[in-house]
Write a structure and sequence with these properties.
disordered N terminus; elongated; three-stranded antiparallel beta sheet; 12% helix; 112 residues; 2 helices; 2 domains; single chain; mainly beta
Length: 112
């Protein structure tokens, strides 16, 4: 059976959140954050797709109730999928191999 070696120091990513919005995202070795978070003002939240639904980005919001990072809404008519915390259009994107852009006025996908 192969031996699995666990690394003491792996890469980790944290987002600085202020008033619910991500201001900064930092990736570094995990040991860096052991002292950094305690000595740096602000709220720092670990980010990854596996633990917070979505990887944080600057301008994203952090929803503590859903424990998720949510990117800004693409269009007013789109709704949030509660399972993935991704914005969904009211009409499914066509699956015909063509490229489309969303038309907020008509609430439909327009071929490019």
């Amino acid at each position: 059976m192969p031996q699995v070696l666990l690394q003491d120091n792996f890469m980790a990513t944290y987002a600085k959140v202020n008033n619910g919005l991500v201001e900064k995202v930092i990736e570094a070795e995990s040991s860096f954050f052991d002292t950094f978070i305690d000595s740096t003002p602000g709220t720092w939240i670990e980010t990854s797709n596996a633990i917070r639904k979505n990887y944080a980005g600057i301008g994203y919001s952090y929803d503590a109730v859903r424990n998720a990072f949510i990117r800004p809404r693409d269009f007013y008519s789109w709704t949030l999928d509660e399972d993935t915390c991704q914005w969904k259009s009211p009409v499914v994107y066509p699956d015909d191999g063509q490229k489309y852009t969303w038309n907020e006025n008509t609430k439909a996908w327009d071929a490019v």
